[in-house]
Write a structure and sequence with these properties.
By secondary structure, the chain is of the alpha/beta class. Helix content is about 40%, strand content about 10%. It has a six-stranded mixed beta sheet. The longest helix has 16 residues, at about 120-135.
């Protein structure tokens, strides 16, 4: 029996212990080593999530696990450039892109909650269009990988390379948590990794179009998200 088959028999407490132990043991490991551990441990029950800001983690994961599932949340509010990046990733990389959508279209949400919910209650909008679809989309997986980095914002400064997602009862892997923006840029340049064109147009972090702006000099990478609203995270990583 493979490790990937064995882990399916583990309960949430045992998976949590596995995650916490791996977080300690892999703290100083390279991103490829962390992702190889994830592939070996979870097999097809492992996926990568991507906002299509760039395809760095998807590229890294595809080398450890060719054909890995890359989960993308299509909120209905994305920039055209983001959708284009998703399509390009699917076309040129050895991954399987899985697009999740909310239960309601934007029009249906507007009809029930009123237009521009993102302006009036951004937390609810994120919950409906991001958090719930991801929870449903991750049901068949035991572990998921993200592109979170500690240098992105104070709220992400303690991100473990492997941790426990209490909300979803899954192992959460952040293989580039210890990377800096310079590390990302170097990897992109070395491997020709696809990136969202908006990153070359003043955007340091790319989310939904109504809630994302360009950043100013000296601001952290997340400053352009929900600017002026006292909100820094969508709820996916709370």
């Amino acid at each position: 029996m493979t490790a990937a088959q064995q882990h399916r028999q583990l309960g949430s407490d045992e998976l949590r212990e596995l995650a916490e132990r791996a977080g300690r043991e892999l703290e100083d490991a390279s991103a490829p080593e962390i992702l190889q551990w994830a592939a070996d441990t979870f097999g097809r029950r492992f996926c990568v999530t991507s906002s299509m800001e760039d395809a760095v983690v998807a590229h890294l994961a595809s080398r450890a696990f060719p054909g890995v599932d890359v989960v993308f949340l299509d909120t209905g509010y994305h920039f055209e450039e983001t959708i284009g990046t998703r399509d390009a990733v699917e076309a040129v990389m050895d991954v399987s892109v899985i697009t999740l959508t909310p239960r309601q279209t934007v029009a249906e949400q507007d009809a029930e909650y009123g237009p521009k919910l993102h302006d009036r209650d951004p937390d609810l909008c994120c919950k409906l269009r991001k958090v719930k679809p991801l929870e449903e989309g991750l049901t068949s997986y035991a572990a998921w990988a993200t592109g979170l980095r500690r240098d992105e914002s104070p709220t992400r400064a303690n991100t473990p390379v492997v941790g426990w997602d209490e909300k979803r009862q899954k192992v959460k892997i952040s293989p580039i948590a210890r990377w800096t923006q310079d590390d990302v840029d170097a990897y992109v340049a070395e491997h020709g990794v696809l990136t969202n064109p908006l990153l070359m147009d003043g955007y340091a972090s790319v989310g939904c179009a109504p809630c994302t702006r360009r950043v100013w000099d000296g601001e952290d990478a997340r400053a352009g998200r929900w600017a002026g609203r006292g909100k820094t995270e969508c709820g996916l990583h709370d």
